[in-house]
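job 3f2a | input accepted
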Amino acid sequence: MIDLQENVLLRDLTTFKIGLGRARYLTTITERQQVPELYQKAQELNLPVVILGEGSNSIAPDRDLEAIVALNRIKGIEQLSETELRAGAGEFLDDLVAYATERGLCGIESLSGVPGSVGAAPIQNVGAYGQDISQVLIELEAFDTVTGEFVVLNSTDCGFTYRESIFKQQAKGRYFITSITVKLHHKQPQPPFYTSLQNYIEQHHLTDFSPAKLRQYILAVRGSKIPDYHQVPSAGSFFKNALITKSQLDDIEKSFGTVPFAEPIGDLIKIPTGWMIDQAGLRGRLFHGVKIDDNNALILLNDSAKTFADLTQAVAEIQQIIKDKFGVAIEQEPINITAIGR
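job 3f2a | predicted structure (342 res):
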């Protein structure tokens, strides 16, 4: 049986702690078998289902949500083979990374400290320091709300691109992810690593690159650059790094010099949005109660904002400044909580 709570304030389910809206119902899913029951109950009530993990990449609206909000808390991590792990979608992603690195497995150590749940990782194609979940995910299990059955999707089925997947696009709202399976390896990574990690290693004269040690280094780097959302509400990196054309890059470099960390992604070039925000002099600025972090320009902090409208105005103003200065449209990374279908 699933239990339903009524009229729950949505912002309390997120790390950004903003928004005035309430969920008509809230339930917590702890077992795979509860998922079909959830959708049966939703059909009886003629309400859509909205799935939330840890709320670290979600923004609550100001309006009430006529929906059942389901917290995915399906737990469990198991080692299927020497290099394959399966994790319940409700596990903390960082706990999966810790489990892997403790066993000498490589491939997701760079995701150390990334907030959120395992189930949210493929939705966003979560990544950090040169690794993302699509590089190691071999399959996931999900409940398909169209067929009413559990299905297994492989990595190709997920349609991964940079911070995107089918779960954010054409299949948004269709699947309730219950577990993921990743294939890792024992080959110890070697330098050079992602720039900020490499700088830390060189600064501290480190020579042990085992996955457990790399996890420690990455947690130290993250801790120095990313504020703790338990102390100041935030949603991590708020803007995606920008994908631009070679012509756009040439125009930017004529005015601002060499763009650091520019990286080819197919026919486009990924450049750091944080660098553009820095160049625009916005670090530390306050917009409608939303502050750009003093140390990391990709991080927006909820300094004193209360409403989704406050955040919307702040984001729009920052985007416009960057558009005017660089001719680049930057995109929000966190997902706005909305109800899809019935």
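job 3f2a | The chain is about 25% helix and 25% strand.
job 3f2a | closed
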